[in-house]
Amino acid sequence: MRSYVRYVFSLLLLFFAMMVHAQHNNDNRIDLSGKWRFAIDSLDRGITGKWFSRKLGDQVILPGSMTTNGKGNEVDLHTPWTGGIADSSWFKKAEYAPYRVAGNIKIPFWLQPVKYYKGAAWYQKTVTIPVSWSGKEVELFIERSHWETTVWIDGKEAGMQNSLGTPHSWVLSGILTPGTHQLTIRVDNRVKTFNVGENSHSISDHTQSNWNGMTGRLQLVARPRVFIDDIQLFPDIDKKEVVVKTVLVNAGGKSTAVTLEALAVTTNAGAEKLKQLTKRVTVSGDTTRLELVYPMGQRPLLWDEFAPHLYTMQLALRTPSGKDVRHVNFGMRAFEVKGTRFAINGRTTFLRGTLECAIFPLTGYPPTDKASWLRILKKARSFGLNHIRFHSWTPPEAAFDAADELGFYLQVECSSWANQDSRIGSGDPLDTWIYEESNRVVKSYGNHPSFVMMVYGNEPGGPGMKHYLVNFVKYWQQKDPRRLYTTGAGWPVAPESDYNSTPDPRVQGWGQGLQSVINGQPPRTDYDWASVISPWKQPTVSHEIGQWCVYPDLKEIKKYTGVLKAKNFEIFREQLAKNGMLHLADSFLLASGKLQTLCYKADIEAALRTPGFAGFQLLDLHDFPGQGTALVGVLNPFWEEKGYVTGAEYSRFCNAVVPLARFPKMIYRNNETLNVPVALAQFGPGILNGSRIKWTIAGEAGSILFEGDFKTTAIPAGSTVQLGTITQALASVLTPSRLIVTVSAGSYRNSWDIFVYPSVLPAAPADVHITQQLDAAAIGVLQNGGKVLLSLKKGTLKDAAGGNIAVGFSSIFWNTAWTHNQPPHTLGILCDPRHPALKEFPTQYYSNWQWWDAMSHSNAIIMDSISKGLKPIVRVIDDWVTARPLGLITECTIGKGKLLISGIDLLTGSEKRPEARQLLHSLLSYMDSNRFDPVTAVAATKITALLKE
């Protein structure tokens, strides 16, 4: 009862403080949102023409951008984009000619804005300062501008600011006096004095767009002559206190006595009521640094992902000219290095992250309201994540607020990707700007408990980059220990960093193509990255794992109702329709999506299996619309599910607690015994009951064939624990089967598909001629009404028939445009699992592990090269850019005979390939039945013309 009374009292106290604060805000703030006068300055005549001294003639609504206001130019062949274009074929290839015509411009590089403008634009508003503000310091506050702003008051220049990730603000001492004034702001979105890199997501058209405007809170704020300029809170959970560091600005410079009052409150039930701390000082000079040590009581509530307890520090500065009140949210937390892992408040944690690359199709710029960010982060949490990396940009305050509330760990970057057209550490102006920007970022957002990591930016370039970035890390380690720092996202690895960010530990690296773990090695789950990370003594976070693509969801086109349009999807849709497969669009999406999910599962579980590993950052949980269109998300750019995997399904292998299994292979014969070590990644909030860990092996219909449990005591949080081994003979599995192995730990469960085939198969039917070339003997069989199975060797197809299409097991990595056609070029298979040809080869409609062998020993056949509109038994889903009708297995008649063509080599080395043996048996059983009745007639010369001589 007593704790409840304290809880109610704290709520009333906070409510009263907020009401006082709100009243104070209403009296001391002027909202500048609404209509502004406007002018485009495409010829840069505004400054010399003194536009700041005249009234502008056009009009826009702010907050907003030129694009949201319909201002700018039509997109055309000469639009001066901001962002690299790796594949420039759109500008010259004949197939894109219809999309280069005025009135039908459609680009495939990224989402297409309805209007585009790069340059200076002028915004102007008449403001009236009330008499009650006499003697006050007036601040102009622009929450987010894109990007360089220069301000004039009544024709007098007040200064320029160029932050990309923090508010632009000016204290306009003695300028905005009571009365009416003309406020003019010039916004310039060109790369000018410093170049953060044209592909940086802070500025690039690849994602948010290079917009021109001002968003978020736009306001004038009145403050007393002595006011609080900066507050930084340094929690110490061991000492149970917060060091409060403030900077007071004394505009008059005269010696003045002031009183600073501090009170920390929280809305959490049962929290201690804390006392107000008062400090009286005399300030003199322009600025005064003041420090308080605030005791947080005997039982301070700690902040983490499971219990994100927040406090509000209320600071009131009482001065002779009035009171300045600030409210700063913070959390009692310590995010630190613990060996090669991270610890939150002493408990080991594991980062399960994704990227946010400033992807906001409706507005073209990031939201500044908390509700929008809560929606995004709640969706990420539903997929098992606890971490977000902001790739080469810094989000608005609302993102930090949402992350604080939900318990997300954020990696923030200082708006740069200094590579390709830029460099870091070479003495360019960017070097100085990064230090300035990072200081602004920490000043603006440094109190947020979610802000646990900071980096200069993404994948740096330049001969002096490592020296510069190591010094940058050292600078921040010494200046602010509240978070951890590393050199750059991706590289370079340096012992001076608090943690490593490197792309080495992942199942597909850039440029590996078909030689990667997932494409170059038979499927298994017994590998990890221990040997990769062993040389390093600090935590390692794997950089941009995944990048697995899915087919475009063409239904998504109608969702782009804002300033960015999916013209790229329109191009892909028209190409698919041209090739007669538009009706398969949804099937391609679902089948490739299932494969994409399987690939992400492989990536994530490998990270969780690795002893001493610190975490991963996906690229991405949602689609990346730029760089030639990278459809790498199981969610679309609006953070919506696409229909093939839910958050509940995804979080079975991506969560705080995940059962893991080390399968030495995924394909078995029934004369073998399954021996699978099982572990549990346990990074939950506390001890897990070990007596509830069980395993089952079920058939495809769900009936349990085998089961058991692990004799394990209570499992503490903070590590990956070995549970034991599943040992099970498979002799009783008499028919070819897909089996589902499931390990359950209380409410957490994870599953894997394995495939079991008979060790002994019947002899091939005598009346089927099996060959790897359509030679005279095979043609003779066909002419006499016989049956032929043509199993092509990999590499025998001509390029025109599909021989140059790089087929692999995985889906496309990132995309083919930005990777310069890196293989694979396909997105898995699509088939009807009920087709009689597949009766003895259990399959779903999409690629699972049993198709790895086939995809690794095959060429995809362009069906039209055999016969226009020929429907294959097993399709291969092509790159959405080319959208060719591809097949692995198809059938036709030649003369009186029946031919089944396999683009898979089912014969070479088949004694060591159980999947090939089983698929061959299934096809032959089909050919030996009366169900084998192809209807499309083809001349033998059409088949021989496919093959190299």
Automatic annotation (TrEMBL):
Stored Pfam families: Glyco_hydro_2, Glyco_hydro_2_C
UniProt protein name: Glycosyl hydrolases family 2, TIM barrel domain
The keyword Signal appears for this protein: yes
Domain of life: Bacteria
Signal peptide: 1-22
Keyword tags: Glycosidase, Hydrolase, Signal
Source organism of the structure: Niabella drilacis (strain DSM 25811 / CCM 8410 / CCUG 62505 / LMG 26954 / E90)
Glycoside hydrolase family 2 immunoglobulin-like beta-sandwich domain location: 226-333
Gene Ontology molecular function terms on file: hydrolase activity, hydrolyzing O-glycosyl compounds
Gene3D superfamilies: Galactose-binding domain-like, Glycosidases, Immunoglobulins
InterPro entries given in the database record: Beta-gal/glucu_dom_sf (IPR036156), Galactose-bd-like_sf (IPR008979), GH (IPR017853), GH2_Domain-Containing (IPR051913), Glyco_hydro_2_cat (IPR006103), Ig-like_fold (IPR013783), Ig-like_GH2 (IPR006102)
GO BP terms, alphabetized: carbohydrate metabolic process
Similarity remark: Belongs to the glycosyl hydrolase 2 family.
Domain Glycoside hydrolase family 2 catalytic: 336-486
